[in-house]
Amino acid sequence: MKPVRILIFAKAPRPGQAKTRLVPALGVQGAAEVARQMLERTLAAALAARLGPVELCTAPPLTDSAWSGVALPDGLACSDQGEGDLGARMARAAARTIARGEAALLVGTDCAEMEATLLADAATLLADVDAVLHPTADGGYALLGLNRFDSRVFAGIAWSTDSVAATTLERLQALGWSMRVGRTLHDIDEPGDLVRLERLRS
Fold this sequence. Notes:
Mean pLDDT: 93
CATH architecture: Alpha-Beta Complex
Order of helices and strands: EHEEHEHEEHEH
Number of helices: 5
Strand order of the largest sheet: 3-2-1-4-6-5-7
């Protein structure tokens, strides 16, 4: 099996700029704290999976004051997401990873069920297919695994809408790539999602 790099896309958990849809329920500080906790959970899961390099792709860059006070674990590679929409940023990271001869697992930090076993299972599937995708209940996706790169997988997607996963799957099918679709996962985005986070903590 080729080496697998986990690419984690994360915004700085800064009050007023992170998890803003949770502010009505938790306040500005509470929403930022959830963002920080989700970042920590995702990083821990990725490192525990022991699949290969774990790269934190940040917005803004780690040198920005928005990241001050955020403690990151040892053993991470870090990179700046750069300019453009989410698709452009993910495409750059996926392209350079695959060009290095590694498979790419792209994830965010919003998924309540992102665990080491899920990542390891996705990597196992990716040994036999070109792409693996875990959709989310809101129509997006929580994980996209790729053995091959084509910019069309990321271009012209209506990000943050309920058509993201469906459109991406259509693109993969149009390319003729082999793929596996994993179970539907859940993001913590809206106040109603917080009950799922509480269950995980208990």
